[in-house]
């Protein structure tokens, strides 16, 4: 019912829908993946690496598959003197002072979220001028549909008077802005909300504040904390660096879109003596390189756990495996909160419903680059292991249930994106209509858009089956829409 109401509103389109030039010109992470229909492991060109620390323990020619496309090749024989960036100096410093290599996960975490030099910390990396584009940036319909999901869950929760609406890693804040704008007519819903943005980047926090049209209430002398209100729906908004900092005690609706893929992964390689962790070291010529750990590492505990959840046949065929302890721990935190406070979480990301082998990739300015090349200047991300999320959540409590994953195309389709696009098309210019159609295709289509008449290199590529949606809810709420 709510769904239909919302869809019928032919509200004015976002100010406005990416113009068709920009929307079709930029690749998304999933589009880059989708250049092949196979799983990430089978897409990876292999790179031989040198492991001088442990050479004698490995058969010669041991190779590690690294997921990096040759879409970008640095010029050969370039011996230009380059000075290390602050982040490179920092990483080399850690390796030097620790007296040995660091895990791929530690490397990834420093590269993305180092508080001074991290990729996400100081700049806007999204969209045209940035490095990649995400679904909320592709079309306003994405945030609106997530809003429909949130309202349906709120209905199933019995329309609580107060709810924490939490978004993990909100980027520019576009998803939340579209959600609030789309939901603003449903006063009883929006009046119940307190929005919590979990964001590690102070620069992105400011951008989110701006995009949510927030204003900071004047300090009053009663010692009551100053509130920030989004004018999009009159809801209070707060920012936090961690989910744990969001106050508990209220039912929560948690959204994580393209958040899990940014969490650091450990990579393991099967060697003659068993699984060895892949590490990042500095070679004699001062370049980063991969080596294998000679001893078991602490992350091996998570590897063992992950292996227990997998079928032996699944493991036997793998020469490499990625494990994401932060994803497991975050899922436990989410499941814990939902089991105590009620509510649910929606996770949308690209990934697999099973063990991920070798998916870590680096993207700079919409192109694949080497993971170790000029760290901090490219996004690093990895496929999300949805099966591991399911197991992590189910371990926490018998009060929660996990649903999906289903494809983004099924998810958005079942929530009524077709009706929404039709409604928006009733009330827009030709240019906006083109943009809506390409945006719609990108969100729910598969492969190249059949209707495209523009330049080949700009053909919109659907990410409807590459992205998956999963929900974790308190069992009191029943099965969430549209997972029934
Ligand atoms: N959800 C957004 C942005 C995805 S990019 C979208 O779909 O457009 C990942 C986001 O998570 C960025 O906002 C980044 O700054 C944030 N982020 C990454 N790692 C984080 C961490 N460990 N803690 C908090 N935020 C993080």
From TrEMBL:
This is Protein arginine methyltransferase NDUFAF7. Keywords: Methyltransferase, Mitochondrion, Transferase, Transit peptide. Arginine methyltransferase involved in the assembly or stability of mitochondrial NADH:ubiquinone oxidoreductase complex (complex I). Acts by mediating symmetric dimethylation of 'Arg-118' of NDUFS2 after it assembles into the complex I, stabilizing the early intermediate complex. Gene3D superfamilies: 3.40.50.12710. Residues 35-44 have a biased composition (Low complexity). It catalyses: L-arginyl-[protein] + 2 S-adenosyl-L-methionine = N(omega),N(omega)'-dimethyl-L-arginyl-[protein] + 2 S-adenosyl-L-homocysteine + 2 H(+). The keyword Ligase does not apply. It comes from the Eukaryota. Belongs to the NDUFAF7 family.
């Amino acid at each position: 019912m709510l769904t239909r109401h919302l869809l019928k509103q032919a509200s004015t389109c976002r100010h406005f829908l990416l113009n068709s030039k920009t929307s079709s010109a930029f690749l998304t992470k999933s589009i880059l993946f989708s250049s092949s229909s196979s799983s990430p492991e089978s897409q990876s060109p292999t790179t031989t690496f040198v492991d001088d620390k442990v050479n004698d323990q490995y058969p010669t020619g041991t190779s590690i598959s690294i997921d990096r496309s040759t879409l970008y090749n640095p010029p050969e024989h370039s011996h230009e003197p380059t000075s290390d960036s602050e982040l490179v100096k920092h990483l080399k410093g850690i390796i030097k002072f620790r007296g040995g290599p660091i895990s791929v996960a530690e490397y990834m975490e420093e590269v993305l979220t180092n508080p001074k030099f991290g990729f996400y910390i100081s700049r806007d990396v999204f969209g045209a001028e940035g490095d990649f584009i995400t679904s909320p940036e592709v079309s306003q319909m994405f945030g609106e549909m997530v809003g429909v999901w949130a309202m349906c869950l709120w209905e199933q929760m019995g329309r609580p008077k107060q709810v924490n609406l939490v978004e993990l890693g909100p980027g520019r804040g576009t998803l939340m802005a579209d959600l609030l704008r789309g939901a603003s007519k449903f006063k009883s819903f929006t009046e119940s909300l307190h929005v919590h943005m979990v964001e590690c980047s102070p620069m992105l926090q400011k951008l989110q504040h701006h995009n949510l049209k927030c204003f900071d209430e004047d300090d009053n002398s009663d010692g009551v904390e100053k509130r920030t209100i989004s004018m999009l729906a009159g809801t209070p908004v707060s920012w936090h660096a961690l989910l744990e900092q969001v106050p508990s005690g209220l039912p929560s609706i948690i959204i994580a879109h393209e958040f899990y893929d940014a969490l650091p992964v450990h990579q393991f390689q099967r060697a003659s003596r068993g699984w060895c962790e892949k590490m990042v070291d500095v070679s004699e010529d001062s370049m980063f390189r991969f080596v294998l750990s000679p001893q078991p590492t602490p992350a091996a505990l998570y590897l063992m756990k992950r292996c227990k959840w997998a079928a032996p046949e699944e493991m036997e065929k793998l020469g490499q495996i990625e494990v994401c302890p932060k994803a497991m721990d975050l899922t436990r935190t989410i499941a814990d909160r939902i089991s105590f406070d009620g509510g649910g979480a929606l996770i949308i990301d690209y990934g697999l419903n099973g063990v991920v082998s070798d998916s870590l990739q680096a993207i700079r300015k919409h192109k694949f680059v080497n993971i170790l090349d000029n760290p901090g200047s490219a996004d690093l991300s990895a496929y999300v292991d949805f099966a591991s999320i399911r197991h992590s959540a189910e371990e926490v409590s018998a009060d929660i249930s996990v649903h999906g994953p289903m494809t983004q195309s099924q998810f958005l389709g079942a929530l009524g994106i077709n009706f929404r696009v039709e409604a928006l098309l009733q009330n827009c210019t030709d240019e906006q209509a083109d943009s809506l159609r390409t945006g719609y295709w990108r969100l729910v289509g598969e492969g190249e858009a059949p209707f495209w008449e523009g330049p080949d290199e700009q053909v919109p590529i659907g990410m409807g089956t590459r992205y998956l949606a999963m929900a974790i809810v308190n069992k009191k709420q029943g099965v969430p829409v549209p997972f029934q």
